[in-house]
Prior knowledge:
Low-confidence stretches: 409-421
Strand content: 15-25%
Number of strands: 14
Shape: globular
Helix content: 40-55%
Distance between the termini: 43 Å
Structural class: alpha/beta
CATH architecture of the largest domain: 3-Layer(aba) Sandwich
Amino acid sequence: MPASPYASDVRILSIATTHPRFDGDSEPAYVLALNRELVARGHQVTTLAPHAPGAAVDEVIDDVRIRRFRYFIPASAERLCYNGGILPNLRRSWTARLNLPFFVAAQAAAVAREIATGGHDVVHCHWLITSGVMGVLAAGPARLPVVVTAHGSDVFTSNRVFIALDRWVLRRCCACTVNSRRSGLLVSMLEPTVRIEPVPMGVYPERLGKHLASARVRAAMGDGSPQLLFVGRFSASKGVPDLVRALPLIAAELPRAKLALVGYGPEEDRIRSTVETEGVGDRVTFLGRAAAGDIPAIMASADLLVLPSIRVEGLGVVLLEALGSGTPVVGSDVGGIPDIISDGVTGLLCRSQDPTDIAAKCVRMIADRELNRRTTANGRRLVESRFGWGRVGEALERVLLDCVRCWPAPAARNPAGGEAG
């Protein structure tokens, strides 16, 4: 990894509410991957994340300092974060709801303590709420620039309180990075004056490929012919029941087709009920959580990755993992998915919440061998050229360093975050 062409040894405080809790964790690792790239380019990064039962309070991973703040006693009752995310946990757990005020206070205090040390040059907040709110509150008095990253779910909202908080953060940050064109459009609608920079999430293409396919993994998935796959959270926005409803239609054309579901979340009971209602229990395998290190073999061992999301999809990183693995993809035409799937070029787009169309696109992708070959080859090239973590880290570095150089002192800015006239 080349050193930064802009500066060296910039000190970055990264604030997030999702982060791997331990080695091999199934929690998303994109915050760690981004920060690892920044460290490799010559910068110092401290990540501030919520504690979780069994996780270290302070550790170093690949030269990234990870500090986890406790927010409830005993630690075994910390239920607000991880395992699907804050909002799903609030919906399903009274303990999570009880955690909430303590979490807000603990995160605010932890961010304030970190910034008060004077050991940071820029603050990078993943999600506008709650990380962006805390970062802006604490960084203002310290005259530090704040860069926020909108991952999708924080701006795909109709909640008036969340919208008001989003706007408050966007008016006071130096820049907002977005993971897709759709996320960028929503951010610009929330606050037209904010500086928006495209910085997608990424993958490690060199760690993906069909050579990782495994007969053992395929057998665990169901050993279908074809073998379909979904990987992701079992949340309402992912549309998994629609994929299950499409399966009988797929099986009518492809009698040996099976579906493997990798993930967990609050919608699992509903998905299992749909499997029973549709009479496809012999065709669906629930594989549960998968560690990050197991995903490449799972992706490579499938014949088709399907992402039938409903409205909310910031980008769809699983599509990148599949294409990088040489596995074709079908995804719904929502959110950031069209940033990855160009219909007929890198995959096929289907109509959201339409099992008939989902089934038709899956059958077409499997049956048309030339389409299958062409889209996976194009998809692999797309992943390598635009979505490798090295390129993503360089794009984020450029935004962070530009804000370090150009951020004005608070006295030169008006209360809305713009330049004083």
